Amino acid sequence: MATLNDEIRRRRTFAIISHPDAGKTTLTEKLLLFGGAIHIAGAVKSNKIKKTATSDWMDIEKQRGISVATSVMGFDYGDYKINILDTPGHQDFAEDTYRTLTAVDSVIIVVDVAKGVEQQTRRLMEVCRMRNTPVIIFVNKLDREGRDPFEILDELEAELKIGVRPLSWPINIGAKFKGVYNIYEHSLDLFTPNKQRVSERVEIDDVNDPRVDEAVGEVDAAKLRDDLELIEGVYPEFDKEQYLQGKLAPVFFGSALNTFGVKELLDCFVEIAPSPKPVQAEEREIRPEEDAFSGFVFKIHANMDPNHRSCIAFVKICSGKFERNVGYKHIRSGKVMKFAAPTAFMAQKKSIVDEAYPGDIVGIPDTGNFKIGDTLTSGEEIHFKGLPSFSPEMFKYIENTDPMKSKQLEKGIQQLMDEGVAQLFINQFNGRKLIGTVGQLQFEVIQYRLLHEYGAQCRWEPISLYKACWIESDDAEALAAFKKRKHQFMAVDREGRDVFLADSSYVLTMAQQDFPAIRFHFSSEF
Ligand code: G4P
Prior knowledge:
By secondary structure, the protein is of the alpha+beta class.
């Protein structure tokens, strides 16, 4: 019988991240295809939000609603149990992605060979870097014209601020693309465009094997050998330890749409990617192999049906075995709760599970007990470190327009904030509530949901702010002086922490210069 340790060791929990359109959905689908979780391509209804000009947020929420089941996709691949955590493609939901990244043990980044590193990839990489998350990079769309692979490698290194090491190498690109040489396994895969099948593999001993010349022609074979020589000269040997520490990213090349280079990626991934790691709680480090169960809520998915105000809380298991109908302590409330219908996510189906292990995600139907960041344990008082909030990009004052419904509005705002839809700050100068988001869409989502789920009406009042940053200082006097000077721009977050509302980058820079004793933080985890 498999022990807890065996279960932990075989688990790989990760997310695929990319700038929209680089190929995340396509790659996810192909990984599921290899895992036997789906049988034909085109079957994944992903979190992908179609970017049509007319799509308003209701469409988007409908699409998101469909995607509960694909929020987590679990499947077995050989001896491994793989959990892919999906992240929304739309950048207005970037905050969801940040939180999902706290629940994974590694990530795969997809980059479009023609576009290189794009804005969202850069931002998501910053989150990975904060947590030293191991990263593998897949350079996609080699069947299309694109940039020189060496140039892409330089850009990845410079823009993502991480060391890179190619583990596969393309032979030409675009119309002349012939295949990839797998540096990791010393094998050659020849490219035949096909959306459903795997490519042809040529058995060779190494790159000097004459069969390489036969397969791709002498000119391209010579170029491949030159390229590889250059790679060996420039890049140090692949060092797995460095990868696990988040300092070095192995790079693969391929075409997700053509199922090309994907299996190589997957085979290497399961071998080198980490199984669930210890998690630092406020009290102590929690090791996955501990017998006692612990986990935390990293995402809450609301049901958009106003008649059933229920949601699903996604719990990442950090240690021990989770069992159905066993009492677990909800640390924030102190209540012991039993879950009769926890769901696991296998392939694209949700089903009730009796047990789950570290690295797994269980979905718990909830009616408002949970808040993002909540901890569940077998009894021990553990608090997993709060998931970071990042300084929002957009701010608006929220105003009640129906004085008879102020209670409903208050409750609605609190619950939506618990779900992590946006961040709430209270301006200390005028006492007004300020909502911060990463995209315009959330304001529409909030307004709609307040009305339909809570019967409360609100309107938005614009405020021009550059950033909200958390401030702290070891020097109480300096802190008090700062707060006094900036009293019109001071707010508190929901935990009562001091937040400075900077209305321009100039003001922020000046504040940083004038008050050297104050530390300014752009994420709440400091
Ligand atoms: P995303 O989730 O990262 O946003 O990207 P997605 O997989 O949806 O891919 C974006 C577009 O790029 C899709 O085309 C997809 O078919 C295409 N694509 C993905 N991988 C490759 C590849 O290896 N080569 C080529 N040539 N194209 C690729 P679309 O027309 O926007 O959507 P669809 O109608 O094909 O679904």
